[in-house]
Amino acid sequence: MGGQVSTQMEKRKAISTEKKTLCDLQQGCGKEFPGCDYRPPDRKNWMSGLNPEKVHLNKIVWPGTHDSATNKIGIPFVSRPFAQCQSLSIYHQLVRGTRVIDIRVQEDRRVCHGILLTYGVDVVLNDIKKFFSETQSEIIILEIRTEFGHEDPPEFDKYLEEQLGEFLIHQDDHVFEKTIAELLPKRVICVWKPRKSPQPKPGGPLWSGGYLKDNWIDTDLPSTKFESNLKYLGEQQPVVSRKFFYRVENTVTPQADNPVLCVRPVTGRIHGYARLFITQCFSRGCADRLQILSTDFIDEDFVDACVGLTQARVEGKV
């Protein structure tokens, strides 16, 4: 018993120390970067506002959400706090400015997070189609994977093609160099990551898992995650040289050995440091590698930071 108490005290001390490290770094370095003052006049149509004929896909800093379809997961006030990573529906995330969606499914096409379930994936796809019907030039990346420990939904690739066919941007390495205008009226890069089923084929309407990569660090320590994100990002090629998307997740994850297991207070330890992260990318020489930046509980300021850097790239300010 005494050993457990001692371990918990050490854990809390480590968390407190790491939170202070990020706070001190922000106070010392600030959070200014090219485009940091830009605020899109209409987040729902921010790509359109930057001029689709000028915006190349490899210039975009894509604001994304982690575990995007968890706004209604589990049982309210019982299991939901342990798995909910977003409070908004997919539609309202897109309206807010999100452009990368992270969906996990199980064999019956229901969205899940671990063992907890929520609505069917059709709800996600209908939200996307509703958003597309209200906008003209917004492109999104939709990642759908079979959750760990679950089986692939039968014939899921065909289902996605049937549901999104008219909007699907086909798998093609040349896409990265094109502008939004050159891809329209197609609107979605759909990355399907099955566990056992065959991967999407080159040239097909769906993209295989190798086109969206990241280095997931499973920790609840904010400075550890922050520094690891910078380290792995620095090991990537510049975005103009890559033929895949690379994601950085500005999140930390509850751990079983810590008494705080609810997502929101844990991920809150790093949530407010997205602008600091971008600033540090410039300070450490890896800003040209930043492409997808994802978060839990996405807010307007996070979107504005990503769009601001995108605007600076498009205008040749970096």
TrEMBL record:
InterPro entries: PI-PLC_domain, PLC-like_Pdiesterase_TIM-brl, PLipase_C_PInositol-sp_X_dom. GO terms for biological process: lipid metabolic process. One of its GO terms (molecular function) is phosphoric diester hydrolase activity. Residues 51-192 form the Phosphatidylinositol-specific phospholipase C X domain. PROSITE patterns: PIPLC_X_DOMAIN (PS50007). It comes from the Eukaryota. SMART domains: PLCXc. Signal peptide: none annotated. It holds the Pfam family PI-PLC-X. This is 1-phosphatidylinositol phosphodiesterase.
